[in-house]
Design goal:
This protein is mainly beta. The chain is built from one helix and seven strands, in the order ββββαβββ. It has one helix at residues 89-92; strands at residues 26-35, 46-55, 65-73, 79-87, 100-108, 117-124, 142-149.
Length: 171
Amino acid sequence: FRMAVYVHAPSNPIVIDTENKPQVNLTAQNLSVKNIESGVIQAGSQLEIQWTVTNIGDISTFGDFTDRILIKHKGTGKIIAESLVSYSEQQEGSILAQQSVIRTAVVKLPEGNLGAGDFEFIVEADFYNHQKETVETRKNNETSLDFVSELRNYPNLTVEQLVLSPTLNWQ
């Protein structure tokens, strides 16, 4: 056997499973986004994000884990928002094999031009790999959804009938 090792930036360890043992296998799916304030998504809107995490593995989850939400601008690739959503086993219980849970979070788009345009929501279940999934089982942990945000109508203030007092010697 021969092995090549490449040095990359630090990241979460991923288990390489050669024994085919029973394991947790989380999937993220059914991603939806809606504006809490009105029907149209606009810059500065508060958005409710909902997704389903399903354990399609052989055993129940063990311990807490964290899902990550990204909002990425489609044109520039720039990430404009990131949110981490914790799942507490103590409060919500283990996710049994073949069981699903609905997760929700609220995020706010930036105001102005930064919050308007074509965007992509990306949700990754168990972002830190606390459930010790393998390379193969982590492939289905991510789901995404494209959406468009309009520029909100902002007030356009103008100054009229300006009077300076006293009227002399202004520099």
